[in-house]
Design goal:
Length: 509
């Protein structure tokens, strides 16, 4: 029976790639297990054949295994990210223990086997106990004692020794069986845990399916407001054909530190919202530029984007805590802070077109699809040698536009919702770009060092000057097609404190 247990255990600890006992067993999400060295070699071979893959199939069931975005370009470490199969490790330990235990050890010297037998004391002894029995008449080796016991089977003393030997063998077998049974029990517990995990995954899938249906209902509801969105599109078209009829200034009161206005947006109600990053404050003004309220948010907010076409709801980035915060502006202008979305990326710039929210750090771009409650990741992409500044997007064309202030290569970049770079614009007139926003079927983008504001088509054609000479070192750009308003902040360390807290407001006709 013990042999059967050992054979069963051995069948469970053989790698299906090298057909040897597992070495550092690694488990795939589908629960198939392989040696770390074997699965690593397999991954590298598969990646060499299909370099564009973002994962690999299981060697047994062919189920696709995804890898985290941060390591997808380094397949040599994919195997190290897999979980150790502790159930298999325990089974291997039990198998080796039961297989290696073939001789009983001395009770006084645990590291020594019982190699000798003292006939006078009818006792097995080890080599360290041997000197203590030198005065005994008959001390033999273990093998000789076994032969003597067999030959003198009718002797009472030999019968006692034989019975003792049989008891020893029985105890040894019982111990081996007990060890195998413990391993099987642990395996059984591991299987029960996997069954529970499978049920949890099924429950989560049912919950996600239910939530997906709810999202579909939400999208259908959004479809009912298509006329409103079409009207907004007409407003965007009008603003493209507009001329600047009036320019006014919003000047913040001195806040103690030199201001740096990094966030501007015009909400559906017409309220203008400004973020002063260095003073950790959000200011709300009416469309007539009357001050309404100041709200302090700590740690310092950086950028803001509206996430509704009918309500004053917006998303605010908090770089220091790696958070996106959903906020709403009350009737009196006070900003109420709501739910927080945690991330491992230090996002700064944020943009939204009510269906998607795009955020970026210096080198990362994430896109979320949201109904305001549930957030689903559409894109997580990292780039090398970049210094992204501001971001905007259009869901209808599935394009994201980013200004990049990389010292050696400043440009405007366009990527799709898969993270693929479609085009880059490097133009001496643009030079170092800062703020960027959607204006109808065009982009509006600012040149930080020249002070000019340009328009640019979605496919990088027709770079035209929109305004020149009205702004010095423009930084953040905010546009409202409904209100025919363009707002621009200014920033450079050498600017006067008053210029840093001044926002230029262009009203269009």
């Amino acid at each position: 029976m013990a042999t059967a247990f050992i054979k069963t255990a051995k069948d469970q600890i053989i790698c299906s790639i090298c057909f040897e006992i597992f070495s550092e067993p690694k488990a795939l999400p589908c629960l198939h297990t392989f040696c770390k060295k074997c699965i690593n070699k397999y991954i590298i071979q598969m990646n060499a054949q299909h370099r564009e893959r973002k994962g690999y199939p299981c060697p047994v069931c062919r189920r696709h295994v995804s890898v985290p975005a941060r390591i997808k370009h380094n397949p040599e470490v994919w195997a190290s990210q897999l979980e150790n199969n502790h159930a298999v490790i325990t089974l291997i330990d039990g198998y080796k223990t039961s297989k290696g235990k073939t001789m009983e050890t001395c009770t006084l010297h645990l590291e020594k086997d019982l190699e000798f037998f003292c006939v006078d004391h009818t006792q097995y002894i080890c080599s360290l106990c041997f000197p203590q029995h030198r005065r005994c008449n008959d001390v033999t080796t273990r093998e000789e004692a076994r032969c003597n016991v067999k030959q003198a089977g009718e002797s009472k003393s030999n019968k006692s020794a034989k019975k003792q030997s049989e008891n020893e063998h029985t105890n040894l077998l019982l111990e081996q069986c007990s060890s195998i049974e413990q391993v099987i029990d642990k395996r059984h517990n591991a299987l029960e845990f996997l069954c529970q995990t499978e049920q949890q995954v099924r429950d989560e899938m049912i919950s996600m399916r239910k939530r997906s249906n709810e999202l579909i209902d939400k999208h259908n509801e959004i479809g009912k407001n298509a006329s409103e969105e079409r009207n907004e599109g007409l407003d965007q078209t009008n603003i493209q054909q507009s001329q600047v009829s009036q320019m006014q200034n919003i000047k913040l009161a001195h806040q103690g530190k030199p201001s740096w206005i990094t966030g501007i947006t015009i909400l559906p109600s017409g309220k203008i919202l400004l973020i002063d990053h260095t003073n950790e404050a959000v200011f709300v003004f009416s469309l007539s530029l009357d001050f309404q309220c100041k709200t302090n948010i700590h740690p310092a907010p950086y950028d803001v984007a509206p996430i509704s076409t009918s309500q004053d709801h917006m998303m605010v980035s908090i770089p220091d805590t790696r958070e996106l915060v959903k906020c709403k502006v009350l009737h009196d202008g006070f900003v109420e802070v709501g739910k927080r979305l945690k991330s491992n990326i230090r996002f700064k710039a944020v943009a939204s077109d009510s269906r998607h929210v795009a955020v970026c750090s210096d080198s990362d771009i994430h896109i979320f699809e949201t109904d305001g409650e549930v957030w689903m990741v559409v894109l997580e992409e990292s780039y090398e040698t970049t210094k992204f500044t501001y971001i905007t997007l259009t869901s209808s064309e599935k394009k994201v536009f980013i200004t990049d202030q990389t010292f050696a290569d400043p440009h405007v970049r366009c990527v799709d919702f898969d993270g693929l770079t479609l085009w880059k614009v490097v133009d001496a007139r643009l030079s170092v770009c800062s703020g960027i926003s959607i204006m109808g079927t065009q982009l509006m983008v600012m040149s930080w060092n020249s002070g000019e504001i340009f328009t640019l088509s979605f496919n990088r054609d027709n770079l035209n000057t929109f305004n020149k000479g009205s702004v010095v070192f423009p930084w953040k750009l905010g546009i409202s097609a409904r209100q025919n308003v363009v707002c621009v902040s200014q920033h450079k360390n050498t600017l006067s404190e008053e210029d840093k807290r001044t926002v230029k407001v262009f009203k269009l006709t």
